[in-house]
Amino acid sequence: MKKRSLLVPGVVLIAMLAGCGTVDQGKTAPPAGNPSSSSSAGGAYINVVKLTGIAWFDRMNQGVKQFATTAGVTATQTGPSTNSPEQQVSLIQGLIAQKPAALAIVPSDPGSVIPVIKQARAAGIKVVTHEAPALTDVDADIEAFDNATYGQTIMGDLAACMKGSGEYVQFVGTLTAATHMAWATAGYELQQQKFPGMKRVSTPVESNNNGDQAYRKAKELLQAHPKLAGFQGGSSEDVPGIARAIKEAGLQNDTCVFGTGVPSQTKAFVDDGSIDAIYLWDPQLAGEAMLSAAKLIVEGKPLTEGTNLGVKGYEKLTVSPQNPKVFLGNAQLKLTKADVGNYDF
Fold it and tell me: Where in the sequence is the signal peptide annotated (predicted)?
């Protein structure tokens, strides 16, 4: 791709991924999304994701299993089959009745889960969230990195690819996805401040965390804006969908596509230039980190500045200056054609 020379790989802050070890003393986690009767007993850990059946959360489930093996506890993952905040809330309400030791939650709409989080904590259940840095009625929120910095990094690379001028669009999974909107907002503010020659053609576009929807909307945008030169994706489903539209139109050499992605879904598009770079944190490590933090809290051990969760990228947590319940890791990755093939998920 003619713009590829501008894409110098950023500093990779995670040198290697956590691998799956052997099962400790013969214990295994029950199947994801189907907590067994043993998982309803005290001491169980349950991770509730936005949506099951997509690559991102399939990978996160590996971290849940790794945590169960390492910690020697029962841990499962579940979530709604569609991207529905209402279904997620209903699911959490049902889990509260099981009285697990802790719930880890990746909310589709952080605002919608506040009442059920309060219910869970009132029942003595510890609650740790992820991708919800504005929530305060939680025991802790674990983030892979500072969200504003992440959004600014993506925008800076998009601007370099676009040479600081031209039309672009930002995609998010949903307008209620707090982290997606934080990345888009931080990127847009940076663009306005430092790259006035660029123009966002619309407010953030929702894909509903669906690659087919991202593909259809990208096609529509390309037709409506023939000079559209840049795409920033928030959901891991966005950039593969956008890339399909770019490749179909033969615009690999004329567009710049950057955003959150999973290597297995994006490698072919990165290799052929339909995607310029993906940004991510390993969902496996995030799942393991959330539950490791929850276990410390269950055991009465506080999370503080410098806490080591024993998970790559989360060895030295920092407290967010915006919210003392938010703890930041150092787990950002940027992958281009040079290194996307080095990751097997």
Answer: 1-20
| Interstrand relation of 318-319 and 326-328 (parallel, antiparallel or unpaired) | antiparallel
Q: List pLDDT tens digits, range 274-302.
A: 999 999 999 999 999 999 999 999 999 99
Rounded Cα–Cα distance for residues 20 and 39 (Å): 21
Which residues, given as ranges, of the chain have pLDDT below 70?
1-42
User: Nearest CA to 211 among 269, 155, 287, 285?
Assistant: 269
Looking at residue 330, the DSSP 8-state letter turns out to be: -
Q: Are 330 and 316 in contact (CB under 8 A)?
A: yes
The tokens for 266 are 């994006």
What's the chain's average pLDDT?
90
Both tokens assigned to 258: 């950057």
3-state helix, strand, coil in the chain (%, to 5): 40, 15, 45
Query: Is-same-fold flag (35-144+282-323; 146-280)?
Result: yes
Q: What is the pLDDT of residue 344?
A: 87
Q: d(Cα 248, Cα 263) in Å, to the nearest integer?
A: 20
**192 contacts 129 by C-beta, under 8 angstroms:** no
Q: Convert the pLDDT of each residue in 90-149 to its tens digit.
A: 999 999 999 999 999 999 999 999 999 999 999 999 999 999 999 999 999 999 999 999
Q: Are the beta carbons of 140 and 117 closer than 8 angstroms?
A: no
**Given 3.30.1490.20, 2.60.40.2470, 3.40.50.2300, 3.40.190.170, which CATH number is that of 35-144+282-323?**
3.40.50.2300
CATH fold label, 146-280: Rossmann fold (3.40.50)
- Do 233 and 219 meet the contact criterion of CB atoms below 8 Å apart? no
The answer to whether 236 and 210 are in contact (CB under 8 A) is: no
Going from N- to C-terminal start, the domains of the chain cover: 35-144+282-323, 146-280
